[in-house]
Amino acid sequence: MIREMLKPVLRAMNIDYRKVLDRFNMFSIAMSVKENGMSSLVDRLRAIVPDISAQEESEREVFNEYWGFKRRALQAFQCTLMLKALEDIPKRDVTVVDIGDSAGTHMLYLKKLTEERLNLDTIGVNLDPRAVKKIEARGLKAILCRAEELELDGKQVDLFTSFEMVEHLHNPALFFYRLAKRSGRERFVITVPYLRQSRMGLHHARKPISGKTIYAEDEHIFELSPKDWELLMLHSGWRISYSRIYYQYPKKLPLLSSLLGSYWRRSDFEGFWGAILEKDMSVCDNYNDWEKR
User: Fold this and answer.
1) 165: Cβ–Cβ under 8 A, 6 or more apart, which residues?
2) pLDDT of 277-289, one tens digit each?
């Protein structure tokens, strides 16, 4: 409501409303980054991969300073989860598979951040051939396939990662189950948009536009709360060993936090939920009617 009230006022003053909004959003995220102790990590990621403007294919036409900073802050949060998942690994040669990898960016980050301790072999997975070409252009391995249909021919994997991908799947339970059925003790780092209450996405079906082509990367199917994701993961062969919410605003100032939380819930997502998963088939195996394959 506030945004709609401000638009005509700013336009009358010949002030670009979008630029004002972008600066406000950057201010909120910058305060969160500082509060979470990620400022130096954001700077380090920028040094590793200076330009992330071509990271993903989407309908967004403008990748400006704000969208770059917003993305980089989220990537810093994701990197903290990956580093935590690998901190106690007992060997040097490690294989990481990034499912939904759009350009190899996270794997470049991780290689550089762990190069003194680990020798990483990385594989990116995406159903979009444009993403696979971007990954390979950076000298990294990539597989063209759907996440649910990933086959690694018995290759030993130490860590799976997936960032803002599972909410785009029609059957995330089957995706988790198929990975859990692999032999080994892989861990899984995952992030999804944070919502307090679960809901369906399917925004293209809410307001259908005749003749418009919708791609998987542009549409959320399930937008679940952390509790519901946790339940679905446990049903599908994974338990959570660690989880955390990254809010796109500071939390330590109660009044400001309340106002900004309401603003982000209405305009975007309040933040992102991340978790480190460990295999646990104890609940999954009680369900009799999984696919037989």
Assistant:
1) 99, 100, 147
2) 999 999 999 999 9
